[in-house]
Amino acid sequence: MKLNFTRVCCPSNFSTFIKPSLCTNLHRPLCSSSLSSSHTSLKPQIPLFLRPPMHSATVSDLQKWHDWAKCLASSVGTTFLDSDNGPDSSLLCRELKWLVEDTIEDHSVLSQMSIENGKRSVRLRAGVEDLYNMWKQRIEERKPFQYIVGCEHWRDLVLSVQEGVLIPRPETELIVDLVADVVSENEDLREGLWADLGTGSGALAVGIGRILGSRGMVIATDLNPIALSVAAFNLQRI
User: Fold this and answer.
1) Residue 1 within a domain
2) pTM for the whole thing?
């Protein structure tokens, strides 16, 4: 049986391919610029920091939400940490700061939130009601923060992630470092064919591809159509 591969074009200097599921859609290739019809309904979640600032709120309403969210985070203490090595209040407060930074278009507002300018309108990438729901999901449902904001910082990249796709862990960066060491010892390997089996967000495929440069090729595969969609999105952005 002939497998149908489609190149994912991206501005970097390496060749990366994504192969559809081995079980389904074998002859329906995934394209970078426009997903094939079988994947158009699986559009990846756009990370919060990339969304247009289509919402607005007053500084007063934003401050009210922030005070509530900080109070909720502080109430956790070390409960999660003691029960299952989850985040403590200190980490949750840092995450709250990151959430605010991703949400607000004009970061100068951050230094003015406690000043008497409550009626000033602020442009946001998510509505205040959405922010309440996001933080409830983080604290009450223990939803991972990366799924809340839709991205993960990995190496020098910011990768899109969402539920259904594993969050790249820092330990996986060691695999890219290992490839870099191997290739530096044997330059012929730069021209080889590398495979990322179960690519997920595409983190390893992108990381290894950047090591190989224009001479190498990486094939990224996954059985999960959500993962294929997210990986393609990440490849387009890098």
Assistant:
1) no
2) 0.80
- 97 in helix, strand or coil? helix
pLDDT tens digit at each of 238 positions of the chain: 222 223 343 434 445 555 543 332 222 233 333 333 344 357 888 999 999 999 999 999 999 999 999 999 999 999 999 999 999 999 999 999 999 999 999 888 777 776 657 788 999 999 999 999 999 999 999 999 999 999 999 999 999 999 999 999 989 999 999 999 999 999 888 888 899 999 999 999 999 999 988 888 899 999 999 999 999 999 888 7
- Gap between the Cα atoms of 76 and 53, Å rounded: 31
Task: Look at the chain and report how many structural domains it folds into.
Answer: 2
Task: Tell whether 119 is covered by a domain.
Answer: yes
CB 222 within 8 A of CB 165: no
Q: Do 133 and 59 reside in the same domain of the chain?
A: yes
